[in-house]
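Fold it.
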Amino acid sequence: MPVTVKTFSNVGEAAAALSSDRGARYFGGGTLVMRALNEGDLSISSIVRAQDQALLRIDASGPRVTIGAGVTFARILAERDFAFLHAPARSIGGPAVRNMGTVGGNLFAPNPYGDFAVALLALDAVVSVQGGFGARDIPIEEFLQSRERQAGALVLSVSCQKPLAAEAFHYRKVARIKPKGGSVITLAAHLPVSSGRVLGARIALGSMAQTQVRAKAAERALEGRPLDASSITAAASAAVEGTSPADNALASGWYRREIVGVHLRRLLSGQK
């Protein structure tokens, strides 16, 4: 079946085209859409593109950073102000994928992919979208949980607070093929410390549920406590609570449940 390609000059027109056609898919870097087309996905009847430079905007001048949905991972790696995001960006595929893959597209990547979204979830990001309802901002946790219903909306940008200290943000991807393999599990933690205690703990996991999820029991184990061996052990023991990992070619759900606490302990302890 032929697929129509529609190119628009601004995000408003592109968003309108997406929201009015159930068979339309947005084409950013193409790493998801082209794979679906090559695999014969008959639900796609048209491709929507936008040449609006707003999708490529980055702003890291203040305490909060904004990244356009069309920004690639290669560009993230080229920006000094995004040093805290370099590890998650570097964990996305190989150079060819990082040159094409976009921040906005990664929000829709299914397991065992979507590693950058794990980092954004730990950083309490906000996703700006535009659709038939107009433009609005959605907390990333809400966006990910309703991702299937967001197919007709165009992601414009994501924004998050910069970690106040480099050691407050932790990221690890466990993969069988490094650096570009699919995720066995992915972990990210933002643990701001004030007066020696963790305040506002956020821990995110990838490949541990249908979509990226927070490890809320592990967060509670750390909240208000010093980040020491005792609290880290408690968080590691609680990491599996609320998860429902699936079996796939990379690992079984049982194996993921067994190792998530081990890797969270290593991550928070600064171990390799």
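The first strand starts at residue 4 and ends at 8.
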